[in-house]
Amino acid sequence: MWRIPLLGLGLVLALALAVQGALAQPGPRRPGGANGPGGGPPANGLPASSGVAWTDVQVHLRAAPGRQFDVAIESALSATAMLGRKTLVLVPPPFPSGAANANAHDYEVFLPSVRRHPGELAFLGGAQLNASLQATDPAAVGPDAKRAFLARASRTLDDGARGFGELALLHLSEFDGHPYERAAPDHPLLLALADLAASRNVPIAVHMEAVDTDMSLPPGLASPPNPPRLAANIAAFERLLSHNPAARIVWLHNGWDNTGQRTPQLVQRLMAAHPNLALALKFQRARVPQNQVMSPAGPNPEWLAVIRTYPDRIVIGSDSFFASPDSRAPTVFQPQPILGLLGRLPPPLADRVGSLNAARLYGLDAR
Ligand SMILES: [Zn+2]
Fold first, then answer.
1. What pLDDT digit, counting tens, does each position of 58-86 carry?
2. Distance 47 CA to ligand 1 centre (A)
3. Domain-located, residue 27
4. Distance of CA 46 from the midpoint of ligand 1 (Å)
5. How many separate domains does the chain show?
6. Distance (Å) from CA 179 to ligand 1 centroid
7. Does residue 228 belong to any structural domain of this protein?
8. How far is CA 174 from CA 35, 180, 294, 367, in A?
9. pTM for the complete prediction?
10. pLDDT tens string 259-300
11. Residues lining ligand 1 (ion), CB within 5 A?
């Protein structure tokens, strides 16, 4: 059940705007665009508690310019407290460098809050790993670069991170100030990271638009910064998945397709071929709405088939942003589709997708 009076007024406003599709990421280029054409969440009915506990493996923070990350974290906890939320996994956004955005941060900003709320919070580390990945030519990775990269990654885990992320393998620039990033999915630093992740039993969470075959940049995206053509990346992604089958790779943002190629059929094929692949579901409106998990009529049957076929490898990763009061960019949090999907799944499956899979894949109970 929603208990609106317990939420802050600002959040209620943000939610109300989000329901109307008016809550935008900053500065969209397209008229009416929020997180993609049309903006806003699918109109999938009234929000209601599903009664199913859920863990969100992809929660971001906005705290510039005051760097009040603790305040943003408290707001995330209170906004989700009455909605069945179990654990929030805080994830550093994948900026190409620390200088790229006033909000760029790595996991250090999470440590004090996670220590105060060990049962409710966990985190990934990876902003600096992502920056190294973006800046390093795969053909020029020598032993020193690999050693330094792995040392940083090990330190991230020693500091308490439950895995690595968010790493950008193909991240399209959707609006001014939003970076275009690309790293080869079979980049030698990533292959080395997969070996480390396997040996430490932690996941790697990646942001990668799907390009099964080369294509033109989808209409409505600016070039530059995006390239006019997008090169195929699925074959290289499969090389990463095959490189170390003990390395769990969490593919973020399923259901949020901006190329038209991340279809349930493609995802089915990859899930069948690679048991170490897991999917995080995102529900915001995307450029290609027919590949969303939730539609106005309810869950997409083809995505339901994926979920039923792989009940142990699907998690919720909402890609929500919680903002501190001094942040110019707003809170983006749309719980309705999460609750709507979990409420439509039979209880054993809902519990797995809601929280049990995340607990196992991210080691959330082992602490
Ligand atoms: Zn992302």
1. 999 999 888 999 999 999 999 999 999 99
2. 25
3. no
4. 27
5. 1
6. 11
7. yes
8. 8, 8, 22, 38
9. 0.87
10. 999 999 999 999 999 999 999 999 998 889 999 999 888 999
11. 207
